[in-house]
Fold these 2 entries.
Entry 1:
Amino acid sequence: MKPDIGITENNTQAVAFELSKLLADEYVLVTKIKNAHWNVEGADFYDKHKFFETQFGQLDAFIDSIAERIRTLGHYAPGTMQAFLSLTQLTEKGFDKNDSNRFVKELLEDHESIIFRLRENIYRVASEFHDIGTSDFMTGLMESHEKMAWFLRSHLVNTKKPMGLLTDVKMEKSVSL
Ligand SMILES: [Fe+2]
C-alpha cells in the first residue's frame, strides 16, 4: 500500500532515486573505509586503524537510515553490489602505498563530493519535489559528513598559517585603530 503523505507518486519516486544514488555512494565509501581500516600501514597504524573503525561505524548507521527513508516513501531500496556500482558517483583508485595519508586524502575527497551532492539536493528535494522531510533528513546527513570531513582534514598537515584565531583578529583590529 502506497503512503498517502501529501507528496505525489512522481515526486516520491524522484526523491527515492536521489536517495538511492546517495545510498550507493555511502556503500562504496564504507567499503573504502573498511579497506583503509584493514590495510593501513605505518608508524601511526594503531591510531588510524581505530579512527577508520569509528568512521565506518558512523557510515553504517547512515546507510541504514537512507535505505529506510526510501522505504518510508513507499519505494524499494537498492540492495545489490551491482546496483550500487551503477548508481554511485564515487570511483575506486589503486595505489602502490598503504600509508594513512593517501587513505585520508581519498576518503576526504569522497566525503566532500557527497557533501556537494547533498547540498544541491537539500534545495531541490524541498522546492522541486515538495518533500520537506527528506530535505531535513539530508541536511542532518550533510552536517554529519561535514564533521567527518573535518576529522579527516585535520589529519593532514597544513602548510599555511592557521586563519581565524581570535587573538590575531583582535591584534589586527587594534593595530588599524
Ligand atoms: Fe576491525
Entry 2:
Amino acid sequence: MGFSQLLSRMATDNGHGEDSPYFDGWKAYDRNPYHPTKNPNGVIQMGLAENQLSFDLIEDWIKENPRASICTREGIDAFKDIANFQDYHGLPEFRKAVAKFMGRVRGDRVTFDPDRIVMSGGATGANELIMYCLADPGDAFLVPSPYYPAFDRDLRWRTGVQIIPVMCDNSNNFRVTKEALEEAYQKAQEDNIRVKGLIITNPSNPLGTILDKETLKGLVSFINEKNIHLVCDEIYAATVFRSPNFVSVSEIIEEDVNCNRNLIHIVYSLSKDMGLPGFRVGIVYSYNDAVVTCGRKMSSFGLVSSQTQHLLASMLLDDDFVEKFLAESSRRLANRHNVFTKGLELVGIGCLESNAGLFCWMDLHRLLKEQTFEAEMILWRMIINDVKLNVSPGSSFHCKEPGWFRVCIANMDDETVEVALERIRTFVRQGKDADAPVKKKHWQNSALRLSLSSRRCDEGVLSPHSPMTPHLMSPHSPLVRART
Ligand SMILES: Cc1ncc(COP(=O)(O)O)c(C=O)c1O
C-alpha cells in the first residue's frame, strides 16, 4: 500500500499550506538566528507578529499577585479544584473577565455578555470553529485581500470551506469597496458556489489599518442584503496606537436596529492584544444563540487550560492593571512604529499609512526589477539571504500588487530594530549607488553586491491586473507554532 493510501487524504494533502518556498525564510532564520553578541551577522526575525513590548508589565503583575497562580505557596489552595475543572462553559469568572476586557478594549462603548463567549485554542481554533458552525464543505467565505496567510489553513483545510478573495488595491489604500464585494459575490454565483459569509480582519493583518465606521456599516448592510454571515476577527483591537479610534462591529450593530444579529460573530484572542500567544486563549463571541450552543459543544476540542483561565480571570478583572497595560502598550507600539517608519523614510522607503497592528506594510515596489511577483520573489530572497532579514512578501498575503512586504516590528528590542534598520538603509543606498565603492559589512556577501548592481532601481509602473501568484503560504509564526 502506498503512503498516500495508508493515511487519510487530509493527512497527505497540502491543505495546511506549509510546503511552500516561503518557509525558506524560516529555515534561513532557524539555521542562522541573529544574536547581538553570539551571532551579530545572523538573520533577524521580522516575520513574527508577536507583541513583546509590554511583557515587563505582565511579569510585575504576576509577582505582585502570587495567589492568582495555582503553583505558588499563596495559590496552592485552589490547585485541586482548578486542576479538576474541565467544563466546556469555562470558569464563570474567566468568561466574565474576558467579556469585561473586550468591552474595555472597545472603549467601554459596548458591553459583552459572558454567556455568549465560546472558548477555543487561540483565534486559530476560533476561526475554524466558526467555519464549522456556519458552512458546509464546498461553501465559500469572502475574504478581502491582502489577508492573513494562515486563513488558508484555518478556514479551509479541515472544514472543506473555500475562500474567495475580495480584491483590494493600493489605489484607495486597500479599502474594501461595495463594488469589489459584489464582484466576488456575483462571480461565485456564476460558478455555482454558495457564499455563506464574509470574514474581515479589523484591524487588518497585514495592513495595520482599521475599518472606518462608514465602511463597516456598508459591510453590515451588504451581508444583511445577501443574508450571509459576517465574521469579524478583531484580535488586533488593542494594538491601535493612534487615532482614529478602533470601531468594532459590536458598536455598529448597536446602532443598526435593522441588522439581523444572528449573522454577526466576533473572533477574539489574547495572542496580540496581551502578547500571550502561547496561552492559546481564543474565543468566538456570537450574537446567534444556536451558534453559541453548537460552538460550545465543539469547544471540547480546544478548551483553554483551566490554569490559564484562573490566572487570567484575576489579571483581567484588575481594573487598574488593565487600564495601565492598555495605555502603556499602545504608547510603546506607537513609539516603535514611529522609530521604524522614520528610519525607513531616511532612505525614501514608505509604508502604508496605518495606526494599528504589530507590523508595517512596506512599499518596495521601486526596488523591483519589473512589476511582477517573480521580481518580488527575487527581491525577497535577496532580503533574506543577503540582507538577512526574514520579512514576508505580499504575495503570501494574496496581495494583488507586487512589491509590498510585511515587516513585524514588535517582537524585538530597540537595539535589534536599529540593526535591522541599518541593514535596510545600507541595502537601499547600495542599490542606488551600485557602481560606487561600497564599504562592505560582515553580513553582506558578494552575492548581494552582484545582484544589486544587476538589479538597479527601475521605476516601473504598477499593473493593477498583475496575475495572482499561485497559492503560497507565508513563513508566519502560527504555521510553525511548535518551533516559535
Ligand atoms: C488575523 C489573525 N487571525 C488569527 C490569528 C491566530 O491567532 P492565535 O495565535 O490567537 O491563534 C492571527 C495570528 O497571527 C492573525 O493575524
